[in-house]
Amino acid sequence: MAKLFRVSARTALSSVVEPIARALLRLGITPNTVTVIGTLGVLVGAVGFAARGHLLIALVLVVIFALTDFLDGTMARMKGGSTRFGAFLDSSMDRVADAGIFGSLAYYLATRDDRWGMVAALLCLAVGQIVSYVKARAEGLGMTCNVGIAERPERLLSVGVGGLLAIVGLEWALPAALWVLAVLSVITVGQRIAHVYKQAQTQTTA
């Protein structure tokens, strides 16, 4: 269901993003530049605003600049496909952005003496990095690992919904969303390890 939603969202965004992508390419702006700018924008929203409790501004900035992840991919396809360095840079910047988001939320919750919420944010930060590492390591060994209930888009959507509910007065929603996300991320790690194990067993048998 999550993958179907993601495909539908990409289709809906294409009509908006593609003209912007073409315009940026005509100006000589590269996909890699957009990747870096998008990450810096997310960090400004997270570290500059979320960490200080300005959740609404932070949410707006993070959503806007997170969409550049779709924009740079569209630009790369228009140029004939992503380069090896472009793919590496995109993945690396995603990890930096995620660290900024969840690290800032951990700091924000700590300033509010919400220790359990802070623990949830730190778990999301740590386990989210493991989710990405397991996939990267599996692909480095020649196997696929594009599975899991809580991939990056789902993780960002979950914390975004929790933050939005906190903004309208449901302060418990943000730590609750983080705890749910932490559990789902742990499950995702297990799903990916099991998926890779099955492939490894099949290769060994063959």
UniProtKB/TrEMBL annotation:
- Could you list the residue ranges that cross the membrane? 23-47, 53-71, 116-134, 176-194
Positions of a CDP-1,2-diacyl-sn-glycerol binding: N32, T33, V34, T35, G73, R77, T83
Q: Which NCBIfam families does this entry report, sorted A to Z?
A: PIPSynth
Gene Ontology MF annotations: magnesium ion binding; phosphotransferase activity, for other substituted phosphate groups
Q: Where does Mg(2+) 1 bind?
A: D69, D72, D90
Main localization (coarse): membrane
Q: What is the protein's membrane topology class?
A: Multi-pass membrane protein
Pathway field: Lipid metabolism; Phospholipid metabolism; phosphatidylinositol phosphate biosynthesis
Q: Which residues fall in a coiled-coil region?
A: none
Location(s), subcellular: Cell membrane
**Which residues does the Swiss-Prot or TrEMBL record annotate as the active site?**
D94
Q: How does it assemble?
A: Homodimer.
Q: Which GO terms describe its cellular component?
A: plasma membrane
The record lists the catalysed reaction(s) as: a CDP-1,2-diacyl-sn-glycerol + 1D-myo-inositol 3-phosphate = a 1,2-diacyl-sn-glycero-3-phospho-(1D-myo-inositol-3-phosphate) + CMP + H(+); 1,2-di-(9Z-octadecenoyl)-sn-glycero-3-cytidine-5'-diphosphate + 1D-myo-inositol 3-phosphate = 1,2-di-(9Z-octadecenoyl)-sn-glycero-3-phospho-(1D-myo-inositol-3-phosphate) + CMP + H(+)
> Which terms under GO biological process does the entry name?
phospholipid biosynthetic process
Its name, as the record gives it, is Phosphatidylinositol phosphate synthase
The record's remark on the cofactor is:
Contains a di-nuclear catalytic Mg(2+) center.
Q: Which Gene3D superfamilies match?
A: 1.20.120.1760
Q: What EC number(s) are associated with this protein in UniProt? A: 2.7.8.-
Functional description taken from the UniProt entry: Catalyzes the conjugation of the 1'-hydroxyl group of D-myo-inositol-3-phosphate (also named L-myo-inositol-1-phosphate) with a lipid tail of cytidine diphosphate diacylglycerol (CDP-DAG), forming phosphatidylinositol phosphate (PIP) and CMP. PIP is a precursor of phosphatidylinositol (PI) which is an essential lipid required for cell wall formation.
* Cofactor(s) essential for the protein: Mg(2+)
Q: Which residues bind Mg(2+) 2?
A: D69, D90, D94
Domain of life according to the entry: Bacteria
What keywords are annotated for this sequence in UniProt?
Cell membrane, Lipid biosynthesis, Lipid metabolism, Magnesium, Membrane, Metal-binding, Phospholipid biosynthesis, Phospholipid metabolism, Transferase, Transmembrane, Transmembrane helix
Q: Which family does the entry's similarity section mention?
A: Belongs to the CDP-alcohol phosphatidyltransferase class-I family.
